[in-house]
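# step 3/5: fold
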Amino acid sequence: MYKFSDALNTYIDYSQGFRRGGSNGIPISGPFAGNPALLIFTPDKTQNYEVGAKGTFNGIHYSAAVFYINWDNFQVDATAVASGASIAVNGPKAKSKGIELALSGAISRGLTYDIGYSYTRAQVAENFTVTDFNTSKVPVAIITGKNGDPLPSAPKNSATVAFDYIHAAPRSTDCVGRCSR
């Protein structure tokens, strides 16, 4: 982190992250049996790079950042074909890059605002197909991704707006002179 002035701080960040793996509750025998390979999904891992600036100017707090993420074994939500159960599956590699912007401040006494925007380009970085079995035990592709495809369930644009109003409750005067201490 480098402090240019009281109004501007900059930073460069590298971090690693993960989400735990787990198991899917799908049957592997009987009429609704799924692909046994889908019982387990593995942890996904990220390498995150970010450069940004934060500060305050005339009472307005601001932040801006650009980021890049390398993702291994990314997790995706899916649905088992035969049972209809919600499951998590893994894709091999993905990458994500984008920007984040935020402003916050006070409009009046007790009333504040927060505004945010992000643009993300999240893409599959290696071709893959996840297969399950239908009720006739025939393999069926449930998720397919090609290098450069958008990452499933990753919005390209996202915006937030929030207002908070805080008002102190009036003090009770019902006990004046009559309440025990």
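# step 4/5: annotate
The chain has a mean pLDDT of 92.
# step 5/5: archive (pending)
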